[in-house]
Give the backbone structure.
Amino acid sequence: MKLFPKLFLWFLAANLISLAVTLAVIVPLWLDLEPHYSARQQGTQALEVYQSEGQRALRRLLRHQRENGTARGMLYNSAGEPAVASRHNRTPQWQAELTQMLNGTDELKLPRGGRLVAATITGNDGSQWRWIARPRPPTKPSWPLLLLRTAIASLVLLLAAWFLARRLSRPIASLQHSSRELAAGKLASRVPEKVTAGNDEVAELGRDFNHMASRLQDSMESHRQLLADVSHELRSPLGRLQLAVELARDADATKTDELLNRIATEGDRLEAMIADVLTISKLENAATNAAVNIDALMSGLLADARFEAGNRQLTINSEPPPPLTLTANAELLRRAIENVLRNAIKYSPDGGTITVGTQQSAQTLTITISDQGPGVPETELARLFEPFYRVSTARDRKTADDGYGLGLAIAARAVQSHGGTIAASNLTIGGLVVSIVLPLNASN
């Protein structure tokens, strides 16, 4: 059974059970309901009016009580005479009942229905009076009216159950529709904002679904772009490799060694490119993290960088790294920082300076690496970390044959796999600075 009819039936059943229980409790009480009546209180009021204002005032009071349905009563003196003369003929049965009430009976059930109640009242002058009244009988319910009201209440409950079931099932149906579209390959499918705008669990589930769908779409688009870039980049070395093979077949002995060297060079380039591509694709499934000492990691990387930069008289200035331990993948983190360092060495002029800084805050560790190279156009800074992207400026042309635009892409993926961020910006004095921000997830 679908969720909507199931919720509807549950809400309807619960409301109808509540209605039935309410009627089972209220109706019997209603049928047996007897209005509360105090003979002494009303008798005292009647005697006070009679003694203070006279017979006419008492008559008005009695008429008011009869018209309001409180009771039909009369005040009698000790001789059994009414304070106000009555025009009604007394039947023998009524006379017998009155005599019984005057002789001290306080309550008497009448055979024709209803009851008589009485109370003895003492006047201001010490005289004894007897108040005898017939209270208003309980109001009996009108069964047609009761059934009509029950039908109206049932209809209201039916509409309420429909509304609640519809309100609860609609967001889930929308989430189901979006998930089916996503499974069918529509990666742009998202749960509507009207579902995710709330603060309940369904809204949180919708937001989580949209976040998952966005990550999935980004991952798929990234893989598609990577595949397209790899296909494009492989064409050049493969073309040169095929050309060299064809030439080698027809070449004389003097050119054979040169062509074989070209074939070996292109093969090495293909191997390096494929290795870097595989590194990018595996970063999302990196090995298990472990404790990494930042001091030891940075010291080793700086020592390697100074050795590599020595033949170009480059100076690498660095601050002492903090004695900090992170939970991370040591190889990936080393690869990320090393790629940025080698990129700075590659584009720095001979005799230039590379500055490496580390700064620790309450929640992050920031590593900055700046060079004195030609910099990057502002419009292309964000694309530096895309696979196979190379800036078409002097910064790239200087070393056009040294790489494939994968170093910074690998660094970006490695940093992102640790929950960090990487960004590049131009220095005002010239050069490029790359900032790596890693979250602190372990104590010093």
Remarks:
- The chain has a mean pLDDT of 78.
- The first helix runs from residue 3 to 31.
- The radius of gyration is 49 Å.
